[in-house]
Sequence to fold (554 residues):
Amino acid sequence: MEMKPLTRVILGLVCLLVAIWLVAPTLVVVPMSFNENKSLAFPPQGFSWQWYQNFATNPDWSSSFLNSLKVASLVAVLATVLGTLAAFGLDRMKARPANLLRMLMLTPMVVPGVVLAIGIYAVYLDAQLVGTLTGFVLAHTILALPFVLIAVSANLEVFDRRLETAAASLGAGALTTFRTVTLPLILPGILSGLLFAFATSFDEIVVSLFITNPYLKTLPVQIFSSITRDADPTVAAVGTILLFATTLLIGGGMLLLGRERKGRL
Amino acid sequence: MSALEPTTPSAPQRAGWVWRPFALTLPALLLLVAVIGYPLLTIVLRSLSEPQWGMQNYAWFFGAPVNLTVLQRTFTISAWVTLVCVVCAYPYAYLMTAVGPRVRLVLVLCVLIPFWVSGVVRTLSWVILLQDSGVINSLLRSAGFDGIRLIRTQTGVVIGMAQVLLPFMILPLYSVMKGIDLRLMRAAQSLGARPSRAFFTVYLPLSLPGVYAGAIIVFILALGFYITPALLGGPRSTMLSTLVQTQVLSLLQWGRGGAMGVVLLVTTFVLLALAAPVMRSRHRDVGRR
Fold:
């Protein structure tokens, strides 16, 4: 589409502003994390590593971090197993019931967080699951399930079922067929589901705020209570560490993926 | 179960083929019922039964002006957030379709980077940016202007929420725009339409399904926002979610909190049901061939 030069310049400027608006807030925690004073006021003063030290040594922070890792790992495994099984079931069902069940399984994505949170809190109070590992894992799993389902289903849609028939006609049993043919081909979907499930749980805050107690806090809960309590730059240090870790993970993943693709050519 | 009893020797196997896929979905469904269905049912029941059976909690909710103000504010803030998202996402998504693959990758990365960072940390960033001693105000002051109050205002809440929700607007918009055949614009111009006329009569209508889809998603997600208004907002920008939380956690009014929750839930599902036909038609091949 031909555009006047002026329109083009204005469009470019607007988009640059939008891009800055999207990205800049993510980076603002980095300078704040090296603040010398116990304050989140801008601009930060001096330079110090003390908030990183605090994150590593203060049991409030380190234990909530470990709790989050523990919960997210369990959720990743559980949600991936349940989600993959469900994706297979839906794939092999008639279209009408499959669509209905799929819609049902995606509801956790649209139910407003607080409504779900008070519901789960009410049930957990009766079942004595508040502040327990089981409670966190179950709640996070159901929230992570839709992401696994979407990722695996997308992979199953392009999977050629005739390959299974071929394997079976060559004498492979159902399990062997699954292990040697189906699984390797849909593995990318399962792995990205696993990653999404981990991230969903690691990041979950609304339901966690309700089902937490002083004995079991996850990292987002600790961050939230720290922000509402005082201006502690440790949150900025945590934010920077998380930003750095994710960038490393995603960057590494992209490099690996790129190399694999090149290797196949 | 007697109706499912096998009648012919080959039937058990066929029945197995029908039931096996369902069995695979069963564990997920059971968890769904236990951790979503049962809790939501509990909330609905409590809203109707605490302190006694009846509609008193709903009567209270719709009878108190304070609640109606918050309800109205929740819709107003969500509408503003949606508007800001549409206005910012439209040119951005358009540019994504108009540039080469390299620039497009950069633009896509800019949309995805906010997802790399935990949601709470992102809200913290907005606190740092918007607070009275924050980045925006200190820049304003060093430029010689007076500081402005952003944190604990509705404007602050809208800015923070819109940034979080912008990707949900850009992505569906882009997926529709990339299917629009740009030769249609050229055809309009060759028939004598000025570029602006060609845009408004050809391109804009073709891109509207993307706008609807994105706007519905953003609006629905905005209605249920809790963390951003809680950290960036003040008493005069309270949204429904915060009110629900106060009723349940601080006042232990499960009936009233539940009634509010049900109102929020029903609104969400009604909006989704209204949007479903529009969302489906999004996949119609717009302007191609």
Q: What stands out?
A: Chain B has twelve helices and no strands. Chain B has one domain: 56-281. Chain B touches chain A through 83 residues (CB under 8 Å).
